[in-house]
Amino acid sequence: MTFTIQGIGASKGISIGMVHIVDPGQVDIDEYTIPENQVEDEIRRLDEALSLARAQLRAIRAKTPSNFGADVTNFINVHLLMLEDTVLTQVPMDLIRERYCNAEWALKLQRDTVVGVFEAMDDPYLRTRKDDVDNVVNRVQWILQHVERSDQATAEHHLEGKIVFADDLTPADAVLMRHQGVTGFLTAHGGPNSHTAILARSLRIPVVAGLHNARAYLRDGEELIIDGRQGVLVVRPTQEILGHYRKLQRFIAHHHRARQRLRNVPATSANGERIILQGNIELPSDAKAATQVRADGIGLYRTEFLFMNRDAAPDEEEQYLSYRDVLEAMKGAPVTIRTLDLGADKQVDGGRPGAPLSANPALGLRAIRLCLQEPEIFRPQLRAILRAAAHGPVRIMLPMLSTMQEFHQVRDVLRSCREELLQEGVAIGENLPIGGMVEVPAAAVCADLFARELDFLSIGTNDLIQYTIAIDRIDDEVNYLYDPLHPAVLRLVQTTIRAGQRAGIPVSMCGEMAGDARYTRLLLGMGLREFSVHPNALLEIKQVISESHIGQLKKFAARMMRTVNTDNRMALLETINENTSAALSG
Ligand code: PEP
Ligand code: MG
Description:
This protein is of the alpha/beta class and 586 residues long. It has 24 helices and 16 strands. The strands form 2 sheets. An 8-stranded mixed sheet has the order 1-8-7-3-4-5-6-2. An 8-stranded parallel β-barrel has the order 9-10-11-12-13-14-15-16, surrounded by 4 helices. Strand 4, helix 8 (171-179) and strand 5 (184-187) form a beta-alpha-beta unit. The structure holds phosphoenolpyruvate (PEP) and magnesium ion. Residues 300, 302, 341, 439, 460-463, 510-511 line the site of phosphoenolpyruvate.
């Protein structure tokens, strides 16, 4: 019998195939004591297992194509660093020496201690890092127990064309499975912000996550359909349902191919209005993807990624070289460098030692607030940006502005950095536009006041939605409330766009809403003329723009903002998107 299971759509697309169920990750281990004269042998056994685990990860990293994005290799690098850390290497060896326990037991004892520390953390993002510890420890336990783990076992399972169901998958597993031809992922845990989801989006693999109890209803090898956009799983589909989804797949593939021709034309609506379409990047190497789709510049360069997964912050010189690389790659197109947005869900390794724990990190000392309190972090970044600006057009963008005083403070620091550099005789760029992100309701409500002094605004919907509806963006349990169409969100977006129009300054949107083709027409109808999106999504958005007569969309946008009922809003969105690729693109 056919039935459907609802989960959370974490990476869009449709996949049809047999399910391969990966057994839950925990390894049963034996715990025993060893005689004193075997201690050194046991330590050697652990050392060899750790070396093999590192070699496995390096092999996976080597097989990761460079176009998979920085996220993938970063995750693998984090796991490699853990495998080199004394916490997971030296301490278990000391335990073997002190307690005469076997290697597996020593590793488990140390795992429990480390996980206990993570679990006690207030920060939800750091709490999720305990999964990384488990993944790394399990890999070593598997080797010690001579158990085949998924990345070895799967090689024999001929995963070509299969959909993998797992409790959760490490990024390393996902990369390998992609190589082996896996076409979709289902996970019991996680949501759109899990590691696997981030990875899968850059790999363009459909994912449905948060399928908690679904495993009990699935049998290995039976046929499934994943609809990653709707977050739905169809089990044992009928021929009729299969036919429908196959048609949808062909339609999506056709549109994807057809879209490639749009690379060489500017983003222009059907009624001839030129729309600015820029790219969001995390690392300098991502600029290549933006140039491949001919983005009109970089609308959001998330510089905090330069600070992650390393022991020490990059110095001014390293930052300068990174920014310069992006400017050179963009060949004269503008690059919007966002100053550090650290804190809350984006922590650097080690965080800020000694800093008091915040009960609400998302409302705490993050982004521009943190930078203004830590000049030794902020000044090198501003100096690096000014120096890089000698090589091409740079805009500076400030994250999480909530008061104009913050802007005034930044202006003062920037002025002092400029004078310092001039005195040192260093070449710098002049008159850099300074803009602010509108991602706190206070900034949206006062957008007219902000627009008087700032050179541009950029709407960060990811945070704006979180703060407007009061839901933690990384908490799966309230994910169902995360709604870009909420009238409160739309009204704040509208207020911001109008404030920019009245003040005559550009307003862009760089949150995920801008890169979701279902909302493109609505946003055009609301007056948005600048979008900054992940390079993977850019051509799809361009296509919808090219299919849209903007004049006809204004009345729909106005209606949407008056529609209270969620179902009615979804129905209206479908009407707006009728006959566009956004209506059907999975
Ligand atoms: C946003 O909040 O919409 C945004 C673009 O910033 P980030 O996702 O990096 O917080
Ligand atoms: Mg943000």
